[in-house]
Amino acid sequence: MAKLKGFEFWKKTLKEARFVVAPMVDQSELAWRLLSRRHGAQLCYTPMLHAQVFVRDANYRRENLYSEVCEEDRPLITQFCANDPEVFVQAALLAQNYCDAIDLNLGCPQMIAKRGHYGVFLQDEWELLEKMVRLANEKLSVPITCKIRVFKEMDKTVRYAQMLENAGCQLLTVHGRTKDQKGAMTGVANWEHIMAVRKAVNIPVFANGNIQYLSDVERCIQETGVQGVMSAEGNLHNPALFEGCSPPVWEMAEEYLEVVRQHPPCTLSYVRAHLFKLWHHTLQIHQDLREELAKVKTLEGLAGVSKQLRLRCQEEIAKEKDVEEKDSGLPFPHWICQPYVRPVPKEPVANGNSQGSDVKKNVSQKRALEDSDGTTDTLSKNKQKKRSRNPNKNFCPEQKPKYIKCEQCGNPKGNKCVFNLCRGCCKKKAYKEVADCPSHGLRFKTKADKQKAEEDGTKEDGTKEDGTKEGSATETERDSSSPQPPTDPGTELQVQSETQPSL
């Protein structure tokens, strides 16, 4: 059968999917996809897979795709990150029989993508991307799709999308944020860029960004004209988002754990991460169970912590303790599935100077610094763990011991270094000047003197290279003289009898 393209592919294969669960590293695994589908999701993506690893590692293929084949889990799109056309196509060929399309990730902004040179960090290499998409479109039996981020310039974003369409992309997901909008600087996604792309291309477009409730989905479709809307963060905090409801957290948590049991194996770290997302707001209150959730090592242990959280929430409901929720600023009580909203970064000032440094400074201070007495209730989690291991540990900067700095690099110097340097600088200097530093255990001068003595043929006891001592008699002289008496008395008698002439 001929490969479907564009809107035909969206209508027949994807069944006009409007509600889409995003590809999320270590988070959109089979169990979570099935849970999301039960609550309104019509299309799901696999987590981002590394094309090169997928090609060379059979275990990676089995654990991340082949073992997750399930009739309920369709339609499904497999996403890859790649920067080599041949490798990308090889990986796609190995995956195409287990999904309905192959997606090229051009939107990941994380540091790991920068180091690996993939994701959004390829968005300026149009020639390479055009080759990757074109080759995949020619070789694969399933359609090729792309997920991108926008440029600051709207016209450049439009030309970027048109280039991918001309290369063979059959569906485009547009995340309305730029490469730099991540972490503390995430901000609001720009739907105007998405609308401009939708008007400029002749293939289906999905929108991504600013989706927290079902009302946001409907509003996005109306304003941008896209065919579908993709959710990542909103889905993680409320897998029933596409149903338009916000159930109690424990209902979603318990249902998810049941799906995990029905479809093993599921990596424990994935399950833990999902529970942290679902219980995010509650764990801000019940900090002791947050620690417990991080420590347990089994699926049943995770389920036990989730059950404890449910019981505590139900006790609060029974006692009608709603004061904390009103003060928290959340639209619903903390035990209700709802999105986590990041603080909006400050806008640039009038003269054009950015306030980014102030934003980063404010966001980096996640917890208050310790008081001058170093009390544990204001210490960070990491410092509290160190304090538990060493109760006498001091975290007050004013009371920390002051170290004398190395004269060259500024690191702490060795206490008795002859050059007043740290070990690294001392080693370089001692080697260059052929000197010793007993403090750092460096013996360059000693070794050089010893080597020189050996080269001169003289050791410390004055022995020559031929094994004789200076000033000692030669072998011929020793023969003509009387032998030296041996130390053993018995041997002495034997030697004397041998030297006397026989009678």
Describe what this molecule looks like in 3D.
This protein has helices at 6-13, 30-38, 51-56, 58-64, 85-95, 111-116, 126-139, 154-167, 191-200, 214-224, 233-237, 249-262, 268-278, 280-283, 287-295, 299-318, 323-328, 356-364, 381-389, 423-433, 444-455, 475-480, 489-499, and strands at residues 19-21, 43-45, 49-50, 76-81, 101-106, 144-149, 172-175, 205-208, 228-231, 436-437, 442-443. The N and C termini lie far apart (122 Å). The chain is globular and about 90 Å long. The chain contains 23 helices and eleven strands. Strand 8 (205-208), helix 10 (214-224) and strand 9 form a beta-alpha-beta unit. The longest helix has 20 residues, at 299-318. The strands form two sheets. An eight-stranded parallel beta barrel has the order 1-2-4-5-6-7-8-9, surrounded by six helices. A two-stranded antiparallel sheet has the order 10-11. The model is unreliable at 322-326, 350-377 and 464-503 (pLDDT under 50). Helix 7 runs parallel beside helix 8, helix 12 (249-262) runs antiparallel to helix 13 and helix 12 runs antiparallel to helix 16 (299-318). It is an alpha/beta fold.
